Amino acid sequence: MNMKNDKTIAVIYFIAGSMCVLAALNYLRNTNRRVVLAALMLCAAAVLAAAGIVWIRKNKASQTAAKIRTGGWSGGIEADGNEKYLLSTPLLDYNNENIKALVMMKGWKDADENAKIRRIFAYVRDNVAFGFNLNDYMPASQILRNGYGQLNNKAVVFAALLRACSVPCRIHAYSADKILLDGILSGFLYEKAPQNLLCMTVEIFYEGGWVETDAFALDRKYLTGLKELNAEAKDEFYGYGFAAKGFQSAAADWQGESASIINRAFKRDLGVFASPDELLGERTQEIKGLRAVLYSFAVRHLMNRNIKKIRENAPAQ
After folding, report:
1. What DSSP string describes 7-32?
2. C-alpha angle with apex 79: 73 to 83, nearest 5 degrees?
3. Which of 97, 118, 150, 245 is deepest in the core (most CB within 10 A)?
4. What is the CA 28 to chain-centroid distance, rounded?
5. Residue 15 CB: number of other CB atoms within 10 A?
6. Do the bridges between strand 196-206 and strand 169-177 make them parallel or antiparallel, or are there none, so unpaired?
């Protein structure tokens, strides 16, 4: 990722947006017959400004990740052994006061290792509802405030809470097929979705080895509603954020072993990273420019409405 280019693109967006505003004002000043053109120019200016904001946010996250990789950040990941898998980062901001208060209130630190992981796993799975947030560049504290997130957002929260409780963890990245979005998106929007999705799982250092999981991605209520709508699917199931065997038995609690609800969609292993910051400093979702703007400000809200309908289909507890 070229951060200098990102900055340049953001500046271009803002300049183009300013020119559209000036053109609109000129139309309005010179004649009343060009009100429609002026309105179109103002709409174009709004879209360009939004695009500039998206690029600046992405660039800022990339800069913090680059500092971590190069040791320019005071918590750099040059630590030996598993120490680097316990560090706080800009995304894994477990020193945030709200996260510290949550950890203390839940008493996770006082539990034995298995219980600690099991309780954090259940909390992230069910208390951070499955839904599409603004982007992948959000710190754990902000995702927790929002109360929802997609797989990568929830991986950030899970990793941050584990590290807050002194459990070493790291990120495993994959390129996954967009079949994961089938059903949440449909028709033209599904066709135009990126073919490959960047997906994060979390590897936990447990009993002397690394245990990998992404099974926290879908909250129980959503998954229950999904099963109700697809009662005929007994084993493999694809779409709606799921791609694995064992559909009807999915959403089990942490069992101390690797578990996945999306691994059938994985196309390419992208490797292991000490933190999500490190990963996002090297790779990003295959969505840029106007498509990124449309996703951030329109498409994801449609996706979240579809998810809400499925969750509402779940029987009352």
Report:
1. HHHHHHHHHHHHHHHHHHHHHHHH-G
2. 110
3. 150
4. 42
5. 12
6. antiparallel
Residue 24 to residues 18, 53, 304: CA-CA distances in angstroms? 10, 21, 35
Cβ neighbours, 10 Å, residue 1: 14
| Domain ranges across the chain | 1-74, 75-312
* Second-level CATH architecture of 75-312: Roll (3.10)
pLDDT tens profile 271-317: 999 999 999 988 888 777 777 778 877 899 999 999 999 998 777 65
Phi first, then psi, for residue 96 (nearest 5°) are -60, 140
Tokens 């004002």 correspond to 25
pTM (two decimals): 0.79
Query: Rounded mean pLDDT of 256-266?
Result: 95
- Give the length of the chain: 317
Q: What is the largest CA-CA distance in the chain?
A: 75
Tens of pLDDT along 142-175? 999 999 999 999 999 999 999 999 999 999 999 9
Say what the pLDDT of residue 44 is: 60
DSSP the chain: --HHHHHHHHHHHHHHHHHHHHHHHHHHHH-GGGHHHHHHHHHHHHHHHHHHHHHHHHHHHHHHHHHHHHT-STT-S---GGGGGS---SSS-TTSHHHHHHHHHHTGGGS-HHHHHHHHHHHHHHHSEE---S-S---HHHHHHHTEE-HHHHHHHHHHHHHHTT--EEEEEEEEEGGGGBTTB-HHHHHHS-SEEEEEEEEEEETTEEEEE-TTSS-HHHHHHHHHHTTT--S-EEETTEEES-GGG-SPPP-SS-B-SSGGGEEEEEEEESSHHHHHHH---S--HHHHHHIIIIIHHHHHHHHHHHHHTSPP-
The span from the CA of 13 to the CA of 115, in Å, is: 50
Higher pLDDT, 63 or 101: 101
Q: What tokens were used for 70?
A: 């190069």
